């Protein structure tokens, strides 16, 4: 049966295609093509982790799961590499398999893979707001750079759905991005939040694209979450917030707090444009980790190469050049891109190393600035 909600979604996309014009602040258009220089690390990652039909596989898990996070990150890397064929393939698989064939009508499910009965499909239908944020952001930036109005229309609809379905007004914090639509509000006074789900540059981009919207509120609550959950500069993976008590903090944050989620807070902060007003605030707040790494040599015991790669931007931004060099050498020695079962390690390496090598950066208003060295006409 054809539902009105589906008709409305289709109408919105068609309307966006008909009336959309590129804003004056858009970056110059560049067209992907085989003559452009490639990104070897992306080519390596794509060959090992992206299937022929556009699914990003996590080989470290027996079920060979695919997550909305993996799909959104792969879209980002494909855009940075100016690899539109891969971008289109990954987006098509994502929409068909994680969003019931229609990203205008639903948030993508966060996990897909082999079920206990041997069948393949969605394992957990709940969404992940960080993946949704990145996906909306990358769709908009790809639409701007490659002049594809459909992508921009999809980004706008997805961003609006994030505001409707993945936020909550929390006493003392205001409007906050939840990790997903359900499962993160266990009782009337408690919320479970994730600081790494809130890259400021992405929210900044949507706030500029939609002035006067709720994105400004999300930026402020994201900043408050990072600052208040890391009083000693060590951000936790997850932060439990109680309306009457505030954040429930770890007794030993330096040792136990920073995990595979939290390390991304340092990654996103290090890549912020220096003209972003919160850049010096976050750099100062998160500085203790740089000192900790300088003294110990690693972010934590048995830290992977991905941890070191995620630290590269903030070490560079903080001017810790000797520690930066040490971590770069550690990455070379551990050679994370040579593995075939370390999906997340390689994701962090692509983000951190790619930024350090100038393959991309973020503008003051959060816009993506790719470092493409050629363009086809």
Features of the shown structure:
10 strands; 377 residues; disordered N terminus; three-stranded antiparallel sheet; Glycosyltransferase; globular; mainly alpha; single chain; 15 helices
- How do the helices and strands follow one another from N- to C-terminus? HHEHHEEHHEEEHHEEHHHHHHHEE
**Lateral strand order in the biggest sheet:** 1-2-3
CATH class of the domain at 1-20 and 31-165: Mainly Alpha
How would you sum up the global shape?
globular
Q: Would you count the extended β strands for me? A: 10
Oligomer status: single chain
What would the average pLDDT be, to the nearest integer?
88
Task: Describe it.
It is a single chain. This protein is mainly alpha-helical and 377 residues long. The protein has a domain at 1-20 and 31-165: Glycosyltransferase. The chain is 49% helix and 10% strand. It contains 15 helices and ten strands. It is globular, with a radius of gyration of 20 Å.
Give a short synopsis of this structure.
The chain is mainly α and 377 residues long.
How do the helices and strands line up, and which of them pair or pack?
Elements: H1 4-19, H2 40-49, E1 66-67, H3 68-80, H4 84-98, E2 111-114, E3 120-124, H5 129-146, H6 149-165, E4 167-170, E5 174-177, E6 190-193, H7 200-209, H8 215-228, E7 239-242, E8 246-248, H9 253-256, H10 263-270, H11 279-285, H12 287-296, H13 305-317, H14 321-334, H15 343-356, E9 360-362, E10 368-370
Antiparallel strand pairs: 1-2, 2-3, 4-5, 6-7, 7-8, 9-10
